[in-house]
Design goal:
Number of domains: 1
Helix content: over 70%
CATH topology: Growth Hormone, Chain: A
Structural class: mainly alpha
CATH class: Mainly Alpha
Strand content: under 5%
Largest sheet: none
Oligomer: single chain
Distance between the termini: 16 Å
CATH architecture: Up-down Bundle
Radius of gyration: 17 Å
Number of strands: 0
């Protein structure tokens, strides 16, 4: 089966994002403890991220049909990279809440617009395969990156981890922007 060029760009660009995000994975709890966060603070940080994302995704998904999926997706990817670098400046639970809220906003821009584009370019004859590839690649990359994140923090530091995450996500944003230069098939 041949993937369309747009599908390849979307999958490859998202793979950078999954890699960058996955590096932190379960280490959020360890990091939150290092900045003085309690179990409740960790719960709040994750809840803030999900609540902001969920509320805004409904709104942004709606406006993306008017303003263009690709533009808003790239904005979300770029915003995500910026807020990932924001972890470098987190020294308190309140700072963590701000970064998590920012990452929630970024995901709200990137996620529904990415899905809309991927659905637009999918092979309508094989949707199970196309979406199976998306979910499978996401899980594999995230699984590998969680282990790599643990290695980075164990042998280096959270600072090294956050710089690596931000760089990977910046590269993903730039790569994802290739979608603007592909002619419709």
């Amino acid at each position: 089966m041949e993937f369309k060029q747009q599908e390849k760009i979307l999958l490859a660009g998202a793979s950078f994002w999954w890699l960058g995000e996955g590096l932190f994975g379960p280490l959020l709890a360890v990091f939150a403890g290092r900045v003085g966060g309690s179990v409740l603070d960790i719960s709040w940080a994750w809840a803030i991220y999900l609540l902001v994302t969920g509320i805004l995704e409904m709104f942004i998904g709606r406006i993306s049909d008017k303003f263009g999926h690709a533009r808003l997706m790239i904005f979300g990817y770029a915003l995500n990279a910026i807020f990932t670098f924001g972890y470098l400046f987190v020294h308190t639970p309140a700072g963590l809440f701000i970064v998590e809220a920012g990452l929630g906003v970024a995901l709200a821009f990137a996620d529904p617009t990415w899905d809309a584009l991927y659905a637009k370019y999918e092979d309508r004859k094989k949707p199970g395969l196309i979406w199976g590839m998306e979910h499978g690649v996401e899980e594999i990359i995230t699984g590998v990156s969680i282990f790599l994140g643990g290695l980075i923090v164990s042998y280096f530091s959270f600072t090294t981890l956050f710089v690596a995450m931000g760089i990977i996500q910046t590269v993903g944003t730039i790569y994802q922007a290739k979608i603007f230069y592909i002619k419709e098939e």
